[in-house]
Amino acid sequence: MTKLLVVGATGMVGQAVTAAAARRGWRASGAARRGAEIALDLEDEASIVSAVEASEPDIVVNAAALTDLAACEADPASAHAINAISVGRLALAAAKKNALFVHVSTDQYWSGDGAALHGEDVPAMPVNEYGKSKLAGEKAAFSVTATLVLRTNVTGPRGWAGKPTFAEWLCEAISKGSPLTLFDDYFTSTIDSASFADALLDLADKGASGLFNVAARGAHHKAAFAAAIGRAMRIDPNVSATASVLALKPRRAESAGLDCARAEAILGRRMPDLDTVCRNIVRQIFHLSERP
Ligand SMILES: NC(=O)c1ccc[n+]([C@@H]2O[C@H](COP(=O)([O-])OP(=O)(O)OC[C@H]3O[C@@H](n4cnc5c(N)ncnc54)[C@H](OP(=O)(O)O)[C@@H]3O)[C@@H](O)[C@H]2O)c1
């Protein structure tokens, strides 16, 4: 049986990876600072080493990060410690156990080219401290050879009271008919967390290593994404206004589309399109077993 250590297991992506592993009969141990099977603090090197050693993993998945853009901007040193330095330490600890290291990265790397899709070879140009720390994290992950780094934009359920994910916030706002102001110049290839987790485990299972984009097919602005969630819920979103993401602080890298051809070639399937992603999200958030 394949054994996984999922770092950041209580988060949105960590929960999805743990559930996907369980669906295929793999054993997943979870780690986080609190609420997981194993206590691990990325800022404490000893806890990284002991978590990896104790779990005897075949694969270490790093789904933990400082994801709050404002916190990264306010404290770049902490962002770098959690999103970069600790990644190198995890990679090394995984390598010492001959485990594959899978690191979840971001799409926060490009601006000014609208809905363009970026392949893995397009140079990353981060515009905020989060993006800079995540790019440094990719480099740290590649300090060992058996490494799979996945760039993505992902959303789905998480279930943290008072801290909804984008998908949770949007589904609730649409179901309540709340007025929405949505960006029409912020382009992403957002994928649902379950599809992302399945692709991650499939790539790992196929022995892939290197840098891969794992996201939805195409890039869409947030207003188009909300419209697709509305179609999946069969409710017209109450869009009161559209707005520009360029006014938002910290600045976003707003042309974040990802070209997933490299991952699709290994997976032997196309990544899901916008409407499929949004139907999956609605199903996952409202715990529906059938398409709505
Ligand atoms: N959400 C998005 O839109 C998005 C988009 C693109 C890429 N990503 C990437 O996807 C990955 C997962 O993101 P997510 O949205 O699932 O994050 P999340 O929901 O905020 O979860 C973060 C997880 O990391 C753990 N964590 C945070 N700081 C830690 C520390 N110092 N030591 C140990 N564990 C720590 C958290 O648990 P504790 O706080 O209890 O430790 C939690 O389990 C990240 O690498 C992120 O950069 C996310």
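^ NAP complex. The pocket of NAP is lined by residues 8-14, 32-35, 40-43, 63-67, 82, 104, 106-107, 134, 152-155, 158 (CB under 6 Å). The domain at 3-285 is CATH 3.40.50.720 (Rossmann fold).
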